[in-house]
Amino acid sequence: MQKRLVPAPNEVWQSLQSTLRLTGFNPAEFNLQQDSEIKRPGFDKPAPLFWVSRRSTGHKQLYSVAPGSPWIFNAYADLLAGRFGPPKPGVQ
């Protein structure tokens, strides 16, 4: 049996939900949509791309979700930097 190296969309969503809660955001305000894949120099497998968007602000951000990539740390930094807007008070 061959090991799957690319995370399934539900695994990506679970990681994102945890990060959203950690930073004070309500996951129900966000969408995750898988896009195409990109070829990476020096790698056999392409990296899947995912759009993360917040309904209330309309902001969309694209992340490459490849094994070993820092996508979740980048999403965390984007949330803390206010790219998706501020979290709503009292929501977790």
Structural class designation: alpha+beta
What's the number of structural domains? 1
Which whole number gives the mean pLDDT? Answer: 85
Instruction: Describe the largest sheet.
Output: 3 strands, antiparallel
Overview of the molecule:
There is one protein chain. By secondary structure, the chain is α+β, with helices and mostly antiparallel strands. Helix content is about 25%, strand content about 25%. It is elongated. The N and C termini lie far apart (about 40 Å). The mean pLDDT is about 85.
Helix/strand layout:
Blueprint: H1 9-22, E1 30-38, E2 47-54, E3 60-64, H2 71-81
Antiparallel strand pairs: 1-2, 2-3
Q: Key features?
A:
single chain, 92 residues, three-stranded antiparallel sheet, 3 strands, elongated
Write a brief caption for the model:
The chain is an alpha+beta fold.
